[in-house]
Each structure stands twice: as structure tokens, then as C-alpha cells.
Amino acid sequence: MSTREKIFAAIVTVFFVCLVVWAVRTAPPTPPTIDKEKIDPPTVLEYEGNTIVEEVDGVVIWELTCSKMRIDSVTQLAELDDVIAKFYQHEKDKVWQLTAKKGLYDQNSKLIHVEGEVVVQEIADEDKKSWQLTADKGAYDQTNKLIHAEGNVVVINNEGAKLTSNVLDWFGEQEMLVATGEVKISKDDVRAFGDMAYSNNGFKHFGLMGNAKLLKGVKDDSQ
User: Fold this and answer.
1) Does residue 137 lie in a domain region?
2) CA-to-CA distance for 75 and 172, rounded, in angstroms?
3) Which domain holds residue 79?
4) Quick check: helix, strand or coil at residue 52?
5) Residue 177 burial (CB < 10 Å; 0-12/13-18/19+)?
6) 16 in a domain, yes or no?
7) What's CA 27's distance to the chain center, in Å?
8) Does pTM surpass 0.90?
């Protein structure tokens, strides 16, 4: 090979090496592996301080507010924090309020389940309030206007009567309370016990069923 051919071969080799180096340096980086589960749209959406309103023919039937709401777009379940719900009985000019620490609202069945410091009471002047309910957990069925409460149920009316039970159902249309399980009613020096109690007048009068017992002249409030 002549000297000229050797020089030409060396130049071609150097050019090829430079071309390879340039191609390596300028090639785009390898794309990361894509996890389809991460790029699918999330099914749970979270909101701060939201309000749900239910209307019938333009009339608000109930409204619910909370400090935080998480809605699953698939199941249509909404988890709620710091629940405040108001239920309107327009025909009776009454408004009931339910508060709780936690809640679960099913947008399909329109059921509201709540737990933690549950309180139900009428929103009115103090002298007009009929009764107040507290419990560990409960549920509200708007279709049947039914409030169901469980666990350390306590009902106090505006005349000082107090009822405790394991379970209580309030039927809004009839304004009737039905309490079951270790029922105890106290007012002044009277104590009443039974398996079930019912009242349809703000618990001013009540009926007892199942192992009913009535005591009068009781001085100790713990009895």
C-alpha cells in the first residue's frame, strides 16, 4: 500500500470513529418503562370543603357540607369528613341537622352513613326544639325519611326526659321514635325500663314493651 493510500485509510478510520462517537452522544436517552396503572386516570377525586344539595322540583330537600370529600367515580361512594347535613320538612316548617366526624354517602341509593360524635337535632329556638339525639353511628334514608342510630344512643327532649338505648329509629313522616335494646327512660323521679320504647309526640309520652318496669320516687340519677 502506498503512502498516499495509507493516509487516506487513516483519515477514513478517524472519520468513522468520530461518526460513531457523535451518534452515541447525540442519541436520545432510552425512554423509561411506562406503567399503565400509573397513567390511567384516578378513580378517587378529593375535594376540600364541598357541598351536596338534593332538590325536588326546585325545592331543596336536604344539603350536606363537609371539610373534605373523596369521591370514587366508579362506585359513586363519597367519603366525608366533619359532616353537617340539614334535612328540610317544608310542609311542617321544620329543619333537622345531623353532624358527625365521618360519613359515607352513596350517590346511587341516596343513603348517608355517619359515625363519630353523631348528633341529630331540630334547628329552632331553644324553647321550640323537640328533642336531640346523640349516638356512635347512624344512617339517613332520604327516600323513607328514616334516621337509624346505633351505639350509646341518647335522646333528650325539651322537657328534660332522657332515653338511652342500643338502637333507635326515627320515622320522619310520622315523627315517631322507636328505641330497642336495654331501653331506659328517666324524667324527674321516674325511671322506666324495657326491651323497646316508642313515642310519636317528641317523646313527651312513651310506650314500653318487653320486660317493662316502672319506678317512681327515684332520687339517684344513676338508677
Assistant:
1) yes
2) 28
3) 36-215
4) strand
5) buried
6) no
7) 54
8) no
pLDDT tens column, 27-67: 444 444 445 455 455 677 888 878 888 888 889 988 999 99
Beta partners for residue 95, in sequence order? 88
Classify residue 28: in a domain, yes or no.
no
Percent of the chain with pLDDT over 70: 75
Task: Give the cell for residue 43.
Answer: 378513580
The answer to whether residue 211 sits within a structural domain is yes
d(CA 137, CA 139): 7
Dist. CA 55–CA 141, nearest whole Å = 15
The 3-state DSSP class for residue 21 equals: helix
CA angle, corner 186, sides to 213 and 133, nearest 5?
Answer: 120
**Count of the separate structural domains present in the chain:** 1
What Å distances lie between residue 123 and 33, 90, 135, 146, CA to CA?
58, 13, 18, 18
Task: Write the CATH number for 149.
Answer: 2.60.450.10
Nearby residues of 205 by Cβ (< 8 Å), 6 or more positions away: 199
**Reduced to 3 states, what is the DSSP secondary structure of residue 12?**
helix
Place of cell 468513522: 16
Question: 27: which 3 cell numbers?
Answer: 442519541
Distance CA 53, CA 212 (A): 43
The two most distant CA atoms of the chain are separated, in Å, by 131
